């Protein structure tokens, strides 16, 4: 009872301070019905804690309360960041970007108002623009920090807040904990001064500078003959991608008409994530009438890039390449360009990049999931992760960038096309040289987060000893941390069997969505081109069996 009173007090205090009439109205309505058990549970969940920094900053459903994304949460986060910057002597400029989601502009403006109120300088990007433009602008402008208001590819009801420091990379420990402590120290919103004006709104020159840098990933004399169907999935990628395409000299892509304009309701897709089944249906329908060489999609904040290739065997006529496939292709493209430095990927991505780097005599590194880790790999020249994220120009953008990745994959496809070859042919070459690295993902979306904790618990209590006829030869609990990796909530299994050269599974809760994610890789030797089709079939069968057995072991 005392607990309930405390919770209601907290909710009422929140309501009294909430600057947004929309969330005030929502919370007042909930409080009026607080006696109903379902509403009481909802309030308890919203006020149990506050949103924490995850894989990519704060992310959550829009709504009232500290466990939701709203103006009060954003103002507190911005105040915590401002206080952290001042304490570390980094007082200076904070550059703020935003996508086209519900409330994104308001959250960006509030962030600027808090920074100016705290005695820092703030600059807003001129309009909704891709996340990589913000990541670029931080170092271009010599800012002390950057904020990008976006929930990327999440459902329409979500929003989020990515935080970068002056090195242009997203925050990791201990900075995230340092900022979090200062957010916690904001006792009341009434003590956060909000400036009414005094921040700068940047002009087109920041975008021009981004585009000029983006173009440097290409060979100016490289081939440009390539037909593309493109979708920004109702997000903010279109104008930047089209400008990049035009400046590069590629023929203008056909843009999927129904998804071309930014729309916070993402009306044509269940989830605006190119990884989700169905998200590419309209793009494939457009491709069926245009007959392009490639279909390219950006996620709504255009830091991811999805690529599909013609496949007569597929119902739609198109096959989405996996992030691991595009990641290997871009790696091969950079090797062909004589890139030097470190090639890196994450522990949940395929190990093929390691083989490519090794063969080219390049350093190779593996990090935890997320570009906040990957972008910090020492000497990084190229980094990618299986979640359709690629950083092909870390000096320009220290984060994944769906625009430069699209440019480079297009140049690679055009180069291959000139000699009558395709991306698929190059994937075959890589399999013949390095072995077939086949990956898949099992992901379970839940309503109730405790189901994820329970599944992780089951796997920890009863670790699988065999899956799909392969023996588990080593099981790592990644929560312990190691010399190579900081601690994280995850489990890793290495498997062996006659059918495979090696196999690996990683299981972890998503840090951006209520999902449990299991990442699978099997590596099969391939003796010659004649065996490749059989090897691909065998790998697909094995991955399907592994997913089935793993789902049973995890109880998901
Ligand atoms: O949402 P985005 O495009 O920024 O992508 C974000 O989430 C992805 C999935 O993370 P998780 O598996 O924890 O959900 C990460 O791989 C990525 O680095 C991060 O920036
Ligand atoms: Mg994104």
From TrEMBL:
Gene source species: Streptomyces tateyamensis
Cofactor: Mg(2+)
Residues of the signal peptide: none
GO molecular function: magnesium ion binding; phosphopentomutase activity
Family affiliation: Belongs to the phosphohexose mutase family.
Span of domain Alpha-D-phosphohexomutase C-terminal: 503-537
UniProt keywords, alphabetically: Isomerase, Magnesium, Metal-binding, Phosphoprotein
Protein name (record): Phosphomannomutase
GO process annotations (BP): carbohydrate metabolic process; purine ribonucleoside salvage
Residue ranges of domain Alpha-D-phosphohexomutase alpha/beta/alpha in the record: 51-186, 209-308, 323-430
A Pfam family the protein falls into: PGM_PMM_III
